[in-house]
Amino acid sequence: MPQNPDYPELEEARSHWRWQPPAGCLAGKVILVTGAGDGIGSSASRTFASYGADVVLLGRTRSKLEAVFDWIVANTSTDPVIVPCDLAHLAQPNADALANSIMDHYQRLDGLLHNASALGPRLPIAHYPVHTWNEVFTVNVTSALLLTQSVQPLLERGDHPSVIFTSSSVGRAGRAYWGAYAASKFAVEGLMETFADETEAAGFRVNSLNPGGTRTPMRRAAYPSEDPQSVPPPENHMDLYVYLLSEYSRGVTGQRLDARTWAGPPNPA
Ligand SMILES: NC(=O)c1ccc[n+]([C@@H]2O[C@H](COP(=O)([O-])OP(=O)(O)OC[C@H]3O[C@@H](n4cnc5c(N)ncnc54)[C@H](OP(=O)(O)O)[C@@H]3O)[C@@H](O)[C@H]2O)c1
What we know:
Layout: H1 8-13, E1 30-34, H2 39-50, E2 54-59, H3 62-75, E3 81-84, H4 92-106, E4 111-114, H5 130-156, E5 162-166, H6 179-199, E6 205-210, H7 217-222, H8 238-245, E7 256-258
Parallel strand pairs: 1-2, 1-4, 2-3, 4-5, 5-6, 6-7
Helix pairs in contact: 2-3, 4-5, 5-6
The structure holds NADP nicotinamide-adenine-dinucleotide phosphate.
NADP nicotinamide-adenine-dinucleotide phosphate (NAP) binds near residues 40, 212 and 219.
């Protein structure tokens, strides 16, 4: 069992999982998670640490990152670090500085979860403000490109590194009023497929993951009148996240996965 004495949500979620990851299956791995302070990123960070990974917690709000950091230190024997960073203002020099600090601390990176996203307003294309469009694309697409470029040398030092780009249902089929968010998720899919094709020969795994409707602050912002209990918590999807970052998904690359329809590893591990 992973070390998770104080994570009842994860314990509860396991009954919904389609794959039971072996204890410690992420031990020795270094994984960078963006948007690690809340929602799916917070859950993913605590889950990865529970399975043994050292997690680099990148996010916008320091106090939220500190809460995740404190939980990991109190409940696991892993070595997390906090990287406060607003991806809306990420430029190549600070992305490179971030990569250098990971290099100093861990000497490599085995996994990268691009998770942080901006939702933007729900407006028709006819009235979508271009400056807001650009802000959403900066966070959802351009920062993912910059971060990927800066840490690629670190990933090359890892063992069959795994990169996950977070998509959405509206990044696979357009939907009215989802504006820049939807278009940016289509771009994320294109970035994933291009990078996957470029790095397959080097042993990289690069995939996109659509969590589907999940009980988080973003979901509440998108559907304010919805009963939060009607959508699953992030922990319910964590089997797929752990699978993609573990040894068990070697050879899986360039795929668009959906947490709601994933049936578990093709050959049960
Ligand atoms: N929840 C769903 O139903 C759903 C469905 C489909 C896809 N997704 C995707 O899943 C991913 C996670 O979604 P979520 O629902 O967990 O979102 P969330 O509840 O809004 O949490 C996102 C996290 O990302 C951080 N973040 C946002 N903008 C940032 C920036 N500019 N720089 C650094 N960090 C930033 C947030 O920081 P703060 O805490 O400081 O705000 C927050 O910690 C997103 O890519 C989203 O598009 C979610």
